[in-house]
Protein 1
Amino acid sequence: MNRFLDLADFERAQIKDLLGLAARLQQHPQPNALAGKVLGLLFLNPSLRTLASFQSAMMRLGGTSVVITPGQGTWQMETRLGAIMDGAAAEHVREAVPVLASYCDVMGIRMFAEGRDLAADLAETQFKMMADLCDKPLVNMESAASHPCQALADWHTMDELNVPERGKFVLTWVNHPRALPLAVPSSAVHMAAMRGMEVVVLRPEGFELPQQVMEKAERAARESGGSVRETTDRNEALAGAHVVYAKEWGSPRHYGDDEAEARLRQNLGDWCVTDSWFRTTDPNCRFMHCLPARRNVAVADEVLDGPRSVVVREAYNRMVVQMAVLYRLLRG
Ligand code: CP
């Protein structure tokens, strides 16, 4: 394994093998496995979990890490090819990425969607340009259309909690003050399909996931024996659910048009997960969210603070599965 960019780049058996390694490293720590190795982390967007969990994972394996957050103690960076750099950015990623890679044994890059051109974002145009600049093993720490480390942690969390492999996984759209990227919902729906689950995407009219995202999940479901569908019917979706996975995302219909998107969202205040959403779910139904989550906009206090919520465990498992990813990238 030389790159960890998307779960779809791997067979289901390879992902299960990686999850097995994560569980072994969790139970039997190897504090010197990556001694002397350096991880370079380039964050073009903010983070709490990804930053802290990668640094912690590397330290727990005996390695160290370098964090670059352009504009915060580091030169602001230009990402556009052909840009005339007479503005705030003093450095171009075309130099910055290979320079950072030259100091490191493995790199992670976070670069969210531009949010203007849906086709370009789904094609990962920007992240591919960055990946081409890096000659070291590389991890996607969230790109325009994929957040594979989150997906892997979510899979591990469901395994730990004995959520049935054939269980019902409901990815539900939830409210947010502005349009958010498609990376987490796309990865979550694909991951659950790859796990073999009955996947239902619950969302209001106008927030259907792009066809490309659904087709990718459907391909994974065909191979795993799972299924994938979309609905606007909340009662039908939630009945018997084993997992309610909440996520905010922008309307693909109005991609890059903030005003039209806001108009579509203005009457959707009831898309905030409350305890009442769990009346007909499986009694052990879990609530999942990748975090950060806006309390009482996306999810009510009563759910986040209640016994169904496993959001902190998901975040902890980011560190666990990333230890396995780093181990595989650096030790094979
Ligand atoms: N879930 C997640 O990636 O969190 P951060 O954005 O804080 O890294």
Protein 2
Amino acid sequence: MKRRDFLKNSFTALALTGVGTAGLSIFRNHQFIGSALAAESSPLLPISPLLDNLDKSGQSAQFLLHVQQGTKSFFPGLDTRTYGYNGNFLGPTIRARNNQRFKVQVDNDLKEETTLHWHGVHLPAKWDGGPRQPIAAGASWFPDFTIKQEAATLWYHAHAMGSTGEQVYGGLAGLLIVEDEVSDQLGLPQTYGVDDIPIILQDRRFYRDGEFAYVRNMHDIVNGVIGPHLLVNGAISPTLKATSNLLRLRLLNGSNSSIYSMSFAGLPQFHMIASDGGFLERPVPMSSIVLSAGERAEVVLDLSSLEYPESALMVDQWGGNQFTAMTIQKAQTLDENAIMPNRIKQVERIPETEAARTRTFVMETMGMGMMMGGRLTINGKKMNMSRIDAKVELGSTEIWEIENRSAMMMSMPHSMHLHDVQFQILDRNGQQPGPHELGRKDTVLIPPGENVRIIMRFQDYKGIYMYHCHLLEHEDDGMMGQFEVV
Ligand code: C2O
Ligand code: CU
Ligand code: CU
């Protein structure tokens, strides 16, 4: 069976068994806002502002972030209590450059502990912002390191032990864009908010009174908190007005536990130009793209090839809903802003022979059945902050073989993420992945029954980092471990 078919079949299979769906039947439906209730008119797509660099010379990148509580109305007349960075929901987009010193002051104005994790960033362990670097209520944190990686779309989010899911659901997430000499010169669309657009996709479930329905019961832990409303940059079914022929979208699956398959109405083809950790070697023509929770992709749409006045971002949620996530309205006349390069840059493949060792990680969902909940583990263990699960030598290359072993009734996709490093996918079930998965990655979808081998170099920094399932309910439940670079 071809991979594409496999993915398609597993979408269907999951939908049929109900595994991985919101499974709302076990709740009383009327408690929630049904998907029929939508905003009255389509709002304009909100675009997070670029965060001001406090170093006016631009030499270094210095930022101030307030972690705060707020309220937002996603539905007319209903208020939702939210969290945000420097605002009510989500955070500003941070932009920095390779080799730039990166200093941030993070003020935690919440009444609870949080952390601020730099997802996808290669950095010293003490500034990682994972569960080991809590910021107490009312306290501040001052990460200070130098960006050492190529241009990429990264992100930041809360990652406190046991409350990551709830805080990210509340809105604690934002984009971090790294630029470098290569990205400067490619001639790709690069005007933020005009032809270079951040797209953060997050599904949500709401109570009738407008509050987020973030529930911590066994059902939601195992299946993930999956909702019938899709937010795009915090808005439901917004409209983006496009004014140029090439439109670059930086897609982030910022949902807690959903896997999204995305396509564009009226555009049978688009090009993917970058994966989690940077550019692909050349633009890869695609008709749809699958991103698991935490993954990013940069895609470029050619609107001059669109026959209709508008397109739409269509999102198919694994085992769940289908959304018209966003309308893309095309201007009468389009600016000739850019041309698609044939080739982007050379992407070095790490040779398998370089690996000093191979480790095995089994992600396992076990249980009595959906209603009873289950047990989510990696190599049979749950996260323990005082246990190091893998000691890795500084400067070494390793292969990690990750298997999603799920019993029939409990088959769940997982999304494996490693802190600090960008890896490459060697194979899925022994077969080389498609060209869109040959670039740098920090998060990878592991569908039920699949076995994925990744390879990476552990460079520059010693210290303790996390690896975990990026389905945040799984992660909070302990589907996480620690590796120490020694
Ligand atoms: Cu985006 Cu440890 O996470
Ligand atoms: Cu991370
Ligand atoms: Cu998982």
